[in-house]
Design goal:
The protein has about 350 residues and is an alpha+beta fold. It folds into three domains: about 120 residues, no CATH class; about 60 residues, no CATH class; about 140 residues, no CATH class. The protein is built from seven helices and 17 strands. Strands 1, 2, 3, 9, 10, 15, 16 and 17 form an eight-stranded mixed sheet that branches. A hairpin with a 2-residue loop joins strand 9 and strand 10. Helix 1 runs parallel beside helix 6, helix 5 packs across helix 6 and helix 6 runs antiparallel to helix 7. The radius of gyration is 35 Å and the shape is elongated. This is TMEM43 family protein. It comes from Rhodanobacter terrae. It is a multi-pass membrane protein. Keywords: Endoplasmic reticulum, Membrane, Transmembrane, Transmembrane helix.
Length: about 350
């Protein structure tokens, strides 16, 4: 009686542990798939799942249309040039600022007063409350402009103008008076990194011009964008309306897009472990019910159970993954059918 009772208890324990292991295997496969699906769904809002290229930042076959993450310092191949002032700078973007010394109206509460200052746009004095004695020139003889580099690369990829305009940072450029055209050299003098038309720079007069330049510095950046041949550009179909990101320094992807969930790690290892756990559980169930230690049958049952669940979860979301799990399911089914036929 005691021996029979012990056998019953042993069988019950094997059944419980086996069932738990099968559930653990199926659950591990399901949570891994769910984690990947949630991550891809969130990533699709920014253009799609992002692949970090690391130091291998070269165009390769099969990359077209994929989102990638690049880390490095851009290289200016064709530097921008301001043709009017004959100024060329090794920068992705060169900005020319033009200001004129003008009257401007200042209101503090109900009080109105007028002062002269450098302003980067023409001020229409006719709109002043007291226009008499505060007339400004009608227009600027020279306007501010932006000059983009002809070619900027990150590794082997060319950066699209949208990404160039998103590069962070700005620093002033000291102009070279020796390179000025003769007509401008006669009109402008260098004063505190500005070119000014003032006869006395410390005491400017109405209508005097002040010209300066800013450049985007070359520094380490992290860029996320879509591959199109040998170019990196914005993903036009991204739901966030942007489809790219540019950050200063080496920034992790999850810091660039805080709304992304943390994707599961060691995906392949987790999937293999899921099948092995389910197979071990099936083996214990077979031992408890049939007193048979058929490893191949257990492996087939484990693959079948995990494969069916994973295959259903991936249907319509990722056809390569669906086909992979379908193959696991078919192999598990074939192995199970073969072992059962052998037993008969």
């Amino acid at each position: 009686m005691d021996m029979r009772k012990g056998i019953v208890v042993h069988s019950l324990v094997l059944n419980m542990v086996g069932a738990l292991l099968v559930l653990a295997g199926v659950g591990l496969a399901a949570t891994t798939a769910r984690g990947l699906l949630n991550y891809r769904m969130a990533a699709s809002r920014h253009g799609g799942e992002v692949t970090s290229l690391g130091s291998d930042m070269l165009p390769q076959a099969g990359q077209y249309g994929y989102m990638v993450r690049l880390v490095g310092t851009p290289t200016v191949v064709e530097a921008p040039r301001d043709p009017e002032f004959n100024l060329r700078v090794n920068t992705p973007v060169l900005l020319r600022h033009v200001e004129m010394f003008q009257w401007r109206e200042v209101r503090i509460g109900d009080a109105v007063h007028y002062e002269m200052d450098w302003v980067d746009r023409p001020l229409d004095a006719s709109r002043f409350e007291e226009p008499a004695g505060h007339a400004n020139p009608a227009s600027f003889p020279i306007s501010g402009k932006q000059f983009d580099a002809g070619l900027v690369q990150m590794g082997g990829f060319k950066l699209d103008p949208v990404l160039l305009h998103a590069l962070p940072g700005s620093q002033q450029v000291a102009p070279d008076t020796k390179s000025l055209p003769e007509n401008l050299a006669a009109s402008f003098t260098l004063y505190r990194n500005h070119l000014v038309t003032s006869a006395h720079p410390d005491d400017p007069r109405l209508g005097d011009l002040r010209v300066s330049w800013d450049e985007v510095p070359l520094q380490q950046l992290t860029i996320v964008g879509r591959v199109s041949g040998d170019r990196i550009l914005a993903a036009a179909d991204a739901a966030d309306g942007k489809g790219y990101d540019v950050e200063l320094g080496d920034v992790p992807l999850l810091d660039m897009f805080p709304d992304l969930p943390v994707p599961p790690e060691f995906v392949m290892s987790r999937q293999i472990l899921a099948v092995l756990l389910a197979a071990l559980g099936a083996f214990l169930l077979l031992c408890a019910q049939h007193r048979q230690r058929d490893v191949l049958l257990a492996l087939g049952l484990g693959g079948l159970a995990v494969g069916i669940v994973a295959c259903v979860m991936w249907i319509g979301a990722d056809w390569p993954a669906t086909c992979g799990w379908l193959a696991v399911t078919l192999i598990g089914f074939s192995l199970t059918a073969w072992r059962l036929r052998r037993r008969r």
